[in-house]
Amino acid sequence: MDLILWRHAEALEMREVQDDLDRALTSKGERQAQRMAVWLNRQLPSSTRVLASPARRTQQTAAALDRKIKTVPGLAPDGTVEGLLHAVRWPDAREPVLVVGHQPTLGLVAAYLVSGEAQAWPVRKGAVWWLRAREREGQLQIVLHAVVSPELV
C-alpha cells in the first residue's frame, strides 16, 4: 500500500480569521499547492483515493489536483495517528491513498510508520511524504519512497 501524506500549503495566520477551519491559502500557498499538484498528478496512479480534512486550507490544497476528494472529519487539525490510519485502512487498502492534512498529525504518522514511535517530526507546508508498505519474508516493511517540498518541484 502507498500512503501519501500532503501537508496543506501556506495559509492565513489564525489571527486573521475567527475559526481555524476557515483559514484559507495565501497566494503563496495557492502556488505551492499548484506546483505539488502538477508533480503528484504525474506520479499518482488514477486509482489513488484522495482524503482531506474539512479545513478550508486542506480543501483548497487538494482541489489543485482536480480529482475526486473525500472529506473526512477525523482528519481535522485535532486528528490522531490512529484516526488517520483507520481512515486510510492502513496497511490493507488495495489502492494508494493520498491524505491532505495537518501538522502535527502528519509528522506523527510518518514517524510512527518509519520508526515505530509517534514522534513530532516536522512536515513543511505544502510538502509530500510518500510511504510504501510491503511484505518481505512475512514481515511488513515501511519504505520511505519520497519526501518532496514545493520548492523542489
Q: What is shown here, in short?
A:
With 153 residues, the chain is of the alpha/beta class. The protein contains 4 helices and 6 strands. The protein has helices at 27-43, 56-63, 81-88, 105-115; strands spanning 2-7, 49-52, 70-71, 97-101, 128-136, 139-148.
Detailed description of the structure:
The protein is α/β, with parallel strands linked by helices and 153 residues long. The chain has one domain: Phosphoglycerate mutase-like (Rossmann fold). Helix content is 29%, strand content 24%. The chain contains 4 helices and 6 strands; from the N terminus they run βαβαβαβαββ. Strands 3-2-4-1-5-6 form a 6-stranded mixed beta sheet. It is globular and about 50 Å long. It starts with a strand and ends in a 5-residue tail after the last strand. The model has no long low-confidence stretch (mean pLDDT 96).
Helices and strands in order, then pairings?
Layout: E1 2-7, H1 27-43, E2 49-52, H2 56-63, E3 70-71, H3 81-88, E4 97-101, H4 105-115, E5 128-136, E6 139-148
Parallel strand pairs: 1-4, 2-3, 2-4
Antiparallel strand pairs: 1-5, 5-6
